[in-house]
């Protein structure tokens, strides 16, 4: 079976000269399908555990603090993602410290993150309210924050470099709009995957992606999401959030959704790309997942499959790592 011949022609340039490496990588069990890196960068994921230090976030009736739960879930997500080749994880905090919102936002911009993921737990006066929700920036927030970032262009490398390239304020504004709209559609796609993944381990508080003007989501050039994992104000959910097994399950779902997002839409200058795999008779999802170095759930989510059953024919989008 010749895997490179099954690749999407649009991606074939990345595999030029890399066919042997791809074959060798697979034979040696190196994980993701491999091809030549040619100076490509890692995919960067910025993980932002909410609150911290003097800001506990919300507190459950039994005393569980949001800042502790979300840090634990975030570190678990980070550990899962760090184990994936070609992917770099940066954190807004890794300990119980207070980090101002603006600093969290700037981290994503400075790191040129491909995804910024803020992790929280929710609270509501009515104790029976429950479930996960996923948030992206509302357009209104995007506009006002973009204006602010323009006004403070000296604060970010992104604006310095884009302004220098543009050479004019008008072109700079156009670049900003393009960047913001690309980031916004990437955030929407990633948020939908995250909702689908979470729905398999937790009730959804909101079945659709929610929009709000959260400060940490305002980076116009970084696809940014905020996940409210569950309600600490709901005694049952507080109990679940206290359970390390449930936190591990949440982290696995979040990590799977993040990876599925990059299988669907790998950043064009990164070490990740994707290819189309033609399904051969008798192949199984777990077999293909093992071959391409991701969990079956990642391939399933990335390809919109409702079950682990592969269709009898057709193509699967699979990840390729440029090592
Ligand atoms: Zn919070």
Q: How would you characterize this protein structure?
A:
This protein has 323 residues and is an alpha/beta fold. The chain folds into 2 domains: 4-40 and 272-322, Membrane-bound Lytic Murein Transglycosylase D, Chain A, CATH 3.10.350; 43-264, Aminopeptidase (3-Layer(aba) Sandwich). The chain has helices at residues 12-15, 19-27, 66-82, 101-110, 139-151, 157-166, 169-199, 235-242, 244-264, 285-292, 296-302; strands spanning 33-35, 43-49, 87-91, 115-122, 133-137, 210-212, 224-231, 272-278, 315-322. It has a 6-stranded mixed sheet with strand order 3-2-4-7-5-6, with helices on both faces. The radius of gyration is 20 Å and the shape is globular. The chain starts with 11 loop residues before the first helix and ends with a strand. Residues 50-51, 57, 66, 120 line the site of zinc ion (ZN).
> What gross morphology would you assign?
globular
Helical element count?
11
CATH domain class of the largest domain: Alpha Beta
Task: Assign the CATH topology of the largest domain.
Answer: Aminopeptidase
Count of distinct strands: 9
Task: Record keyword descriptors for this entry.
323 residues, Membrane-bound Lytic Murein Transglycosylase D, Chain A, 2 domains, 6-stranded mixed sheet, 3-stranded mixed sheet, 9 strands, binds zinc ion, hydrolase, TAT_signal, N-acetylmuramoyl-L-alanine amidase, N-acetylmuramoyl-L-alanine amidase activity, LysM
């Amino acid at each position: 079976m010749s895997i490179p011949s099954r690749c999407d022609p649009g991606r074939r340039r990345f595999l030029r000269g890399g066919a042997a490496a791809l074959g060798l990588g697979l034979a040696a069990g190196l994980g993701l399908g491999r091809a030549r890196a040619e100076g490509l960068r890692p995919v960067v994921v910025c993980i932002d555990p909410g609150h911290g230090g003097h800001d506990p976030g919300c507190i459950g009736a039994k005393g569980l603090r949001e800042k502790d739960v979300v840090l634990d879930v975030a570190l678990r997500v980070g550990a899962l993602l760090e184990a994936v080749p070609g992917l770099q994880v940066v954190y807004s905090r890794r300990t119980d410290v207070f980090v101002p919102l603006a600093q969290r936002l700037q981290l994503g911009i400075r790191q040129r993150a491909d995804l910024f993921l803020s992790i929280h737990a929710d609270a509501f006066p009515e104790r029976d309210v429950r479930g996960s929700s996923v948030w992206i920036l509302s357009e209104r927030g995007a506009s006002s924050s973009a204006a602010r970032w323009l006004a403070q262009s000296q604060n970010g490398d992104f604006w310095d470099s884009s302004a220098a390239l543009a050479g004019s304020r008008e072109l700079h504004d156009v670049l900003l709009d393009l960047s913001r709209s690309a980031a916004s559609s990437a955030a929407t796609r990633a948020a939908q995957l995250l909702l689908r993944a979470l729905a398999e381990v937790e009730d959804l508080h909101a079945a659709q992606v929610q929009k709000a003007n959260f400060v940490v989501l305002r980076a116009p050039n970084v696809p940014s999401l905020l996940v409210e994992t569950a309600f600490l104000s709901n005694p049952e959910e507080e109990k679940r959030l206290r359970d390390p097994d449930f936190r591990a399950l949440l982290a696995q779902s979040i990590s799977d959704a993040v990876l599925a997002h990059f299988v669907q839409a790998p950043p064009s200058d990164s070490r990740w790309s994707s290819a189309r795999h033609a399904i051969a008779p008798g192949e199984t999802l777990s077999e293909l997942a093992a071959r391409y170095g991701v969990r079956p759930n990642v391939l399933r989510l990335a390809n919109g499959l409702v079950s682990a059953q592969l269709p009898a024919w057709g193509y699967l989008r699979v990840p390729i790592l440029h090592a």
